[in-house]
Design brief:
It is built from 8 helices and 11 strands. With 217 residues, it is an alpha/beta fold. It has a 5-stranded parallel beta sheet, sandwiched between helices. The longest helix is centred in the N-terminal third of the chain and has 13 residues. It is elongated. It starts with a strand and ends with a strand. It comes from Streptomyces tropicalis.
């Protein structure tokens, strides 16, 4: 899942991003509304975690722009005010969910994951294919009933492949969904991660390499 965190309190923004990365999400971070508009014009995000009171361009205007563009991106709006009128106003602007500060990180993560599921075709909370069972909420993976321990990036790549339901996923698509914008697109990080993931999942191999196209399960 690709997430953009937009928050002018840099310590909070960086802490949220670090936490979401530990949950196997690819996260980019910006600290003002103008930078957010630049990012959404370049990258495809599943979810934008958007502070409302932003410098340069207000968070409300960022949200309106996402709606105007007809993007499938879901918006989780953050604000220091938890008044009902503020929540209603944020949702009317086009936000998909609303979370007042201060918030529990576990709730933020659950809401981001719930919104992420709404950017694509509905899928069950637990993904199952080829003897693999992946639970995004619990961060657990089992193959034939045996738990498999994966690093966050390995988990993220497997989740993308599982959600594709047998379709081929290119290396570029994996890079876009599982890594943030600071990753060098010319590295072999995708190939190495897939190799490690394939080894951890064991025999017989379930990740198939489609020459010149990508990978599928």
């Amino acid at each position: 899942m690709r997430v953009l965190v937009v928050e002018d309190e840099q310590l909070l923004a960086d802490a949220v991003a670090t936490g979401l990365r530990r949950e196997a999400m690819a996260v980019d971070v910006v600290y003002d509304g103008a930078a957010a508009l630049e990012r959404i014009g370049v990258n495809d995000y599943d979810v934008v975690v958007l502070d409302r009171d932003l410098p340069r361009v207000h968070g409300d205007d960022v949200c309106r722009r996402i709606v105007e563009l007809g993007m499938p991106t879901r918006v989780l709006m953050l604000t220091a005010s938890g008044d009902v009128s503020d929540r209603v106003e944020g949702l009317e602007i086009g936000a998909d969910d609303y979370l007042p500060k201060p918030f529990a990180f576990s709730e933020l993560t659950a809401r981001v994951r719930a919104l992420g599921r709404r950017t694509s075709m509905p899928l069950p909370p637990v993904l199952e294919r080829a003897g693999i069972k992946l639970d995004p909420n619990r961060r657990e993976v089992f193959r034939d009933g045996k738990e498999v321990q994966l690093a966050p990036k390995e988990f993220a790549v497997l989740e993308v492949l599982m959600r594709s339901e047998g379709a081929v996923v290119s290396a570029e698509q994996l890079l876009e969904k599982a890594w943030d914008e600071n990753t060098d697109p010319f590295t072999n990080v995708v190939r190495v991660t897939v190799m490690t993931l394939r080894r951890k999942l064991g025999e017989p191999p379930v990740i198939v390499t489609v020459p010149g196209s990508g990978y599928r399960i």
